[in-house]
């Protein structure tokens, strides 16, 4: 299937959280509300990323979430994460995704094994060959334990469906190296707080955690970042840093529960909302962001 959307028109993608009920099961009614809110803000939606606790869900649960959101037929594009360490399992997941009315894929770097350039090329080349959907690669060494080599983008340049890179290493200097490696690949910031700086360097948008709690405000922040409007950058950075006081998505789920967006702040083990000892910082951040004009 091919996307019905022009993905370049969506500079903000929300890495959607997965809501759970008191029994630790997926809260689908709540999930539908979250999708509706992102749709109202005209934000692209990423399902089953690390913010969505995708790797803590069973394959059946992952498939159910994708089918459920697809059946809602949101009028914004859907991207689905592909992540893990077992290549045959990832190919089976891609086979499932290829049959769904989704618009893009997020291909994560293989976890734990720390492959070098040749291993990375082999991994992504195999995944890109297994789908015709536009694909965004994901550089997140803080979670995968390996940084993507900049040369990877040029080595994979023959793939027409290599659409973008989500750069979440926290190192702005890496941006230009990646862009030089393959200028045709759109680069998105994977760090909310760094979006203004990535925008100045030529980023096309943001894949965001903060947009879960502040969908419209984050969309406005991205718009201002891309247009070079400096207003609110300091306020934003101070506020968004509170969402990473402990491991993501713990703080954002606690905040969304306080906001009434989530029925519970529950996460899947090994994460727990009890890790955040006080909600004071995120509540203060919430007040600042919601006071924007």
UniProtKB/TrEMBL annotation:
Catalyzes the condensation of (S)-aspartate-beta-semialdehyde [(S)-ASA] and pyruvate to 4-hydroxy-tetrahydrodipicolinate (HTPA). Its EC number is 4.3.3.7. Belongs to the DapA family. PANTHER family: 4-HYDROXY-2-OXOGLUTARATE ALDOLASE, MITOCHONDRIAL, DIHYDRODIPICOLINATE SYNTHASE. PROSITE patterns: DHDPS_1, DHDPS_2. SMART domains: DHDPS (SM01130). Pathway: Amino-acid biosynthesis; L-lysine biosynthesis via DAP pathway; (S)-tetrahydrodipicolinate from L-aspartate: step 3/4. Pfam families: DHDPS (PF00701). Keywords: Amino-acid biosynthesis, Cytoplasm, Diaminopimelate biosynthesis, Lyase, Lysine biosynthesis, Schiff base. Homotetramer; dimer of dimers. It comes from the Bacteria. Its main location: cytoplasm. One of its GO terms (cellular component) is cytosol. The record marks 50, 112 as: Part of a proton relay during catalysis. It is found in: Cytoplasm. The active site is at 138 (proton donor/acceptor), 166 (schiff-base intermediate with substrate). One of its GO terms (biological process) is diaminopimelate biosynthetic process. It is an enzyme of class 4 (lyase). One of its GO terms (molecular function) is 4-hydroxy-tetrahydrodipicolinate synthase activity. It catalyses: L-aspartate 4-semialdehyde + pyruvate = (2S,4S)-4-hydroxy-2,3,4,5-tetrahydrodipicolinate + H2O + H(+). This is 4-hydroxy-tetrahydrodipicolinate synthase. Transmembrane segments: none annotated. The gene is dapA. Pyruvate binds at residues 51, 207.
């Amino acid at each position: 299937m091919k996307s019905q959307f022009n993905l370049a028109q969506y500079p903000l993608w929300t890495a959607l959280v997965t809501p759970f009920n008191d029994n630790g099961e997926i809260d689908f009614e709540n999930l539908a509300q979250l999708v509706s809110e992102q749709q109202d803000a005209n934000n692209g939606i990423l399902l089953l990323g690390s913010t969505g606790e995708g790797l803590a869900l069973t394959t059946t649960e992952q498939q159910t979430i994708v089918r459920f959101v697809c059946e809602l037929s949101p009028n914004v594009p859907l991207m689905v994460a592909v992540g893990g360490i077992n290549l045959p399992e990832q190919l089976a997941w891609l086979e499932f995704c290829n049959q769904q009315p989704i618009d893009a894929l997020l291909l994560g770097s293989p976890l734990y094994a720390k492959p070098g350039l040749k291993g990375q090329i082999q991994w992504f080349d195999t995944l890109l060959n297994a789908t015709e959907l536009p694909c965004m690669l994901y550089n997140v060494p803080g979670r995968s334990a390996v940084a993507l080599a900049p040369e990877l983008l040029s080595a994979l340049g023959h793939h027409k469906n290599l659409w973008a890179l989500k750069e979440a290493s926290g190192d702005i200097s890496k941006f230009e190296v990646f862009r030089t490696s393959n200028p045709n690949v759109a680069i998105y910031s994977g760090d909310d707080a760094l979006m203004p700086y990535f925008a100045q360097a030529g980023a096309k948008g943001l894949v965001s955690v903060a947009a879960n709690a502040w969908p419209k405000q984050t969309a406005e922040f991205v718009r201002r970042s891309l247009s070079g409007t400096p207003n609110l950058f300091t306020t934003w950075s101070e506020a968004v840093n509170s969402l990473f006081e402990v491991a993501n998505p713990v703080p954002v789920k606690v905040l969304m529960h306080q906001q009434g967006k989530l029925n519970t702040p529950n996460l899947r083990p090994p994460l727990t909302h009890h890790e955040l000892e006080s909600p004071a910082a995120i509540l203060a951040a919430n007040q600042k962001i919601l006071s924007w004009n």
